[in-house]
């Protein structure tokens, strides 16, 4: 199947197996070609892409103006987003960077070393995150930090 073959698209889910789509979950040139050829994109598909894009921290909705012709203020316009929102955005950015790097390594690393490299990286991520993936582990971390502060270990 050629790289620009519109038949490479999964028309039921409007997905592609190319690096761009796997990396960004946004329509790629293959999807646009398939749409131009077979008219596969519906309003529901576009809404799904908007949701996927919005879930990565981007605002894709057209600005809505009030009766005075001004765009209404939104949380964050004045840099006043709260800590939970900042943390959620930081998490999204970090996950997106990890996902992007994962696909770059899958695509660009030496095939003879790829399996070992990916296993080392994924194992390292799992070990680094293990304590935070359970409530017991998180409680243990909080208690250890509290004890460190109480014994004067704070720097």
UniProtKB/TrEMBL annotation:
Highest taxon in the source lineage: Eukaryota
Q: Which Pfam families match?
A: SWIM
Keyword Zinc belongs to the record: yes
| Keyword Zinc in record | yes
Q: InterPro entries annotated for this entry?
A: Znf_SWIM
SWIM-type domain sequence ranges: 7-39
A GO MF label: zinc ion binding
Provide the alphabetized UniProt keywords: Metal-binding, Zinc, Zinc-finger
What name goes with this protein?
A: SWIM-type domain-containing protein
- What broad taxonomic lineage does this protein's source fall under? Eukaryota, Fungi, Dikarya, Ascomycota, Saccharomycotina
């Amino acid at each position: 199947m050629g790289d620009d073959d519109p038949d490479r698209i999964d028309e039921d889910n409007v997905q592609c197996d190319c690096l761009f789509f796997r990396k960004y979950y946004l329509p790629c040139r293959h999807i646009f070609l398939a749409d131009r050829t077979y008219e596969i994109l519906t309003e529901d598909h576009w809404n799904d892409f908007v949701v996927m894009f919005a879930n990565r921290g981007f605002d894709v909705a057209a600005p809505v103006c009030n009766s005075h012709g001004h765009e209404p203020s939104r949380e964050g316009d004045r840099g006043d987003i709260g800590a939970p929102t900042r943390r959620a955005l930081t998490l999204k950015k970090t996950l997106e960077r990890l996902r992007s790097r994962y696909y770059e390594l899958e695509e660009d690393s030496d095939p003879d070393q790829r399996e070992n490299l990916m296993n080392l990286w994924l194992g390292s991520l799992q070990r680094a995150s293990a304590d935070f993936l359970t409530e017991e582990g998180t409680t243990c971390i909080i208690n250890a930090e509290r004890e460190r502060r109480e014994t004067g270990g704070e720097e």
